[in-house]
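so my prof wants the structure for this chain in the tokens format not the other one, which i didnt know existed until like an hour ago. anyway here's the sequence
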Amino acid sequence: MKHRLTTSVAALALVFGLCGTASADPIKNVVLVHGAFADGSGWRAVTDILERDGYTVSVVQEPETSLPDDAAATKRIIETVNAPLILVGHSYGGAVITQAGNEPQVRGLVYIAAFQPDSGETLGGLLKQTPPAANSAVPAGEGFVIVNPKTFHADFAADVPAKEANFMAISQVPISVTGFGTPITNAAWHNKPSWYAVATEDRMINPDLERFMAKRARSTTIEVKGSHAIYMSQPQATAKLIEQAAKAAK
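here's what i got, hopefully its the right format
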């Protein structure tokens, strides 16, 4: 009887030991969410770095038709990955990951020059609280807006080569204005660890607002000298922060 008990205890210890090992496995999945006026192709350089370093990357192509629609598109990708992952958002994509990031597969949130709203807040309210240097959104019809193509390079992507920035300007994805007026219902950063990259030369979101949001959420924060498009102009720094999150999150 004693031998059986000892064997059972040993077996249980082995099972729990194996479970512990599995839960301690490094996170190797990353889901990237683009911001307003852009699409997922802007993540190409970051994706190349992450894949080279052994990560599996998924890119969300949210429709920018409403915050609920964009959160739903993100949740679909999270469910498809169906494994521990790091969820990354740029700009408006920060609001999307804040809304969608409560899914159990999400182990950490990374904000890249992004909105990081609290529950009940809207992006429009945050912009009024701390206005950005630029205010170059123009109507695109039927309740959608884009950045004025004439000022896109200077305001959105000043440190991106002019030819590339100009193409971004003429291929913008219009965003519904409702996305800026819809409140967050359950801010995921209250329950998930977060990391933040402040873009010190950002003209679309005030860097001081970025610092405020990151500090409020107790995010691990770095500052990167660059425009709002630091995910494109500074892919190494962006990927490094994402990898830091993947190694630290459980």
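also thought this was worth mentioning. The mean pLDDT is 92.
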